[in-house]
From TrEMBL:
InterPro entries: Lysozyme-like_dom_sf (IPR023346), Lytic_TGlycoase_superhlx_L_sf (IPR037061), Lytic_TGlycosylase_superhlx_L (IPR012289), Lytic_TGlycosylase_superhlx_U (IPR008939), Transglycosylase_SLT_dom_1 (IPR008258). Belongs to the transglycosylase Slt family. It comes from Pseudidiomarina maritima. The keyword Signal applies. Residues 419-483 form the Lytic transglycosylase superhelical linker domain. This is Soluble lytic murein transglycosylase. GO terms for molecular function: hydrolase activity, hydrolyzing O-glycosyl compounds. The keyword rRNA-binding does not apply.
Length: 659
């Protein structure tokens, strides 16, 4: 064990030195009376100075700073940087020791990857193989095969068969793989079937520009298949070109048609439907392919509100439904008020779907609508015991108290203290203090992967104590600790939420619920759609609210983000007839989509929410409503379902709004 770990949890005395030349012994004397908080603050400064010294190759200064830092938790990051920048194959012992010490931390795989690159460059075959761990990068996989071929004797076939997995990718392979691919090909392992499998991967979600290259590798009489796959990938309407459906390779042609129809139904449903009814006889779908097409057609046609949607939904047996097709079947019947059909379907569903809160709620609603009040009430009573959107709806319909089923996450103090002192936890804390969120999360996620469940629970408590709420929420969700309500629903940034909600004249619990759903209170959150910060605002939205150009940096400021987010919620609510349900949907999907979704005739709000076409928005609205109720209950200590009580009689209609 290194000196860093031997010293790790002792009182930090050796903590400071300046690049100008103060020696470690003087630093210890100067700081012997410093508080641990002051020591850590000074160590952070020294750490940054050591990083800069190493980067600039000022190795004498670097060595003094390393000595002064002593047991500071982030010293291993400096050693990792040293290995990446300066280590050579002669430093094998140093690298080996580091990797042994940090095998389970993110530093381990980061340094191992760089070290393998160095060994590859110098063709140190045996040394490379001693460090290589499957799978590694594609480059490393290829070199591992190459190194085994270079150092091995005897039958090479088992080694070359390792190339099969490397070959089967829809992406281009690096040039480092060329030698082993050539050996694999020369050994006769690149068969037509292997080539075809890779064409499928490239066509169906991979790098489609790879297909022309792979086409040339096929036997000449099969090359038309690759050409057709490529054309269909670029435009599924090319399926209609019958010259490619010659029947020479019916299974391959059927595979292309299955893929193409699955895309064409979204782009041009009428053409897809016509083609489906006029395929050549040799296009014979397997049971799996035909089920996939029926499910895809049912969802696509339903989402597009096509007049053939009902027909394709009806082709699915109760046991063949996916969650998506079941939703659209439910939506169709709810739109029509077809309560009898819902009643008849639910008992035939698989157990997991039949017993879900959603289907139990609508089963009870259908029974209620058909005059079976006592049976319906029994189901609502069971459902009202659940802490969920549907459970809260059921409680509101019965006008009875909510069930939060909360249970504090209580752990022995000594366990929390022990976990808090783990090197990975200490590193995560310091990385957060240095505003290095990505590295901090890598450390935390590595701990979650390797610690036992009880210690993971301690991690959740520690993260909550640190105000690292999104990690606490994520950890508890992963562990299934759903009853730890205090940690799962923190009142983070409560002062700011309250101040700006009051200013915008909206419910603070609504604002908290939106922040909880949008980012789990992660102030540096960013989405694939380009939304930023606590309440996940698009720059264009922020500009509109603020009437000026707002920078991304500003959106990462929690207070500013909450101010804009609450103002935007209030504006949406005002524009949508003071209806916060519609405003919640608009916050996620945009106000003009919500306008399009409004029914001409009044509709109960629970039915309208279920008819929202976008699954993301539909689930978003349900979650925000449930979270808002939870926050109201937690903050006001009131178990009456006041919030959901407002929903039960509510009607949604486009006629009541002025655009």
């Amino acid at each position: 064990m290194s000196k860093w770990y031997q010293q790790f949890c002792t009182v930090l005395l050796c903590a400071s030195s300046l690049v100008s030349g103060i020696h470690a012994s003087e630093a210890q004397t100067a700081q012997a009376t410093a508080s641990p908080i002051d020591v850590r603050a000074q160590q952070r400064e020294l750490f940054l100075e050591a990083e800069a010294a190493l980067k600039n190759r000022q190795l004498d200064d670097y060595s003094r700073l390393i000595e002064a830092l002593g047991a500071y938790p982030l010293v291993p990051y400096l050693e990792a940087d040293y290995i990446r920048l300066l280590a050579t194959p002669k430093d094998d012992a140093r690298v080996s020791e580091f990797l042994d010490q940090h095998y389970l931390s993110p530093l381990g795989w980061q340094v191992r990857s760089v070290w393998l690159d160095k060994l590859m460059d110098d063709h140190h075959y045996e040394q490379f193989l001693s460090y290589y761990e499957y799978p590694g990068s594609i480059r490393h996989q290829c070199f591992a095969v190459y190194a085994q071929l270079a150092t091995g004797t005897g039958d090479t076939a088992p080694i070359l068969r390792l190339v099969n997995d490397i070959w089967l990718t829809g992406e281009s392979l690096p040039k480092d793989c060329d030698p082993v691919l050539e050996a694999w090909t020369n050994a006769g392992m690149r068969t037509a079937d292997m080539i075809w499998q890779r064409i499928v991967l490239a066509a169906e979600g991979g790098q489609h520009t790879l297909i022309p290259y792979l086409q040339k590798l096929l036997p000449e009489n099969m090359q038309y298949l690759a050409e057709h796959y490529h054309r269909v990938r670029r435009n599924p309407a090319n399926l209609t070109q019958r010259k490619y459906l010659s029947g020479d390779f019916p299974k391959h042609e059927t595979q292309i048609v299955t893929y193409g129809l699955g895309r064409l139904i979204w782009r041009d449903p009428d053409v897809a439907l016509e083609l489906m009814d006029s395929l050549p006889a040799h296009i014979n779908f397997s049971a799996e392919q035909y089920l996939l097409l029926r499910q895809t057609f049912a969802v696509a046609l339903s989402l597009k509100d096509h007049d053939q949607a009902s027909r394709w939904l009806a082709r699915l047996d109760a046991t063949e439904h996916t969650d998506a097709t079941l939703h659209w079947q439910l939506a169709e019947w709810l739109r029509e008020g077809a309560w009898t059909q819902i009643m008849s379907l639910v008992p035939r569903l698989p157990d997991t779907q039949r017993e879900s809160d959603q289907w139990q709620y609508w089963f009870a609603r259908s029974l209620e609508a058909q005059g079976f009040g006592p049976v319906s009430k029994q189901i609502f009573e069971r459902l009202a015991q659940q802490r969920s959107y549907y459970g809260f709806l059921a409680a509101a319909k019965l006008k009875q108290s909510l069930s939060l089923s909360r249970e504090a996450l209580e752990l022995p103090p000594e366990q929390i203290s022990r976990v808090r002192q783990l090197p990975g936890v200490q590193r995560a804390y310091e990385l957060r203090a240095l505003d290095r969120g990505l590295d901090a999360r890598r450390e935390w996620n590595s701990l979650l992967e390797h610690l036992p469940p009880d210690d993971q629970r301690a991690l959740a408590v520690i993260a909550s104590d640190w105000g690292w709420h999104d990690q606490a929420i994520y950890t508890l969700g992963t562990l299934g600790e759903y009853d730890a309500i205090a940690q799962r629903f923190p009142t983070a940034y409560l002062e700011e939420h309250q101040q700006f909600s009051d200013a915008a004249n909206i419910d603070v619990n609504w604002a908290l619920a939106v922040s909880r759903r949008e980012s789990a209170f992660r102030d540096d959150a960013r989405s694939h759609a380009g939304a930023y910060g606590l309440m996940q605002l698009l720059p264009s939205t922020a500009n509109l609210v603020e009437r000026r150009d707002v920078s991304v940096h500003e959106l990462f400021n929690p207070s500013y983000n909450i101010r804009l987010g609450t103002r935007y919620l209030a504006d949406l609510q005002r524009r949508l007839g003071d209806n916060w349900i519609l405003a919640t949907a608009a916050y996620n999907a945009g106000i003009y989509r919500v306008y399009d979704w409004l029914p001409a005739q009044p509709m109960e709000v629970d039915r309208w929410i279920e008819l929202i076409p976008y699954a993301e928005t539909r689930n978003y609205v349900k979650n925000v409503l449930a979270y808002q109720q939870i926050y109201r209950t937690l903050r006001e200590n009131e178990l009456q379902p006041e919030l959901f009580g407002e929903l039960v009689p509510m009607q949604i209609s486009g006629a009541q709004l002025k655009r």
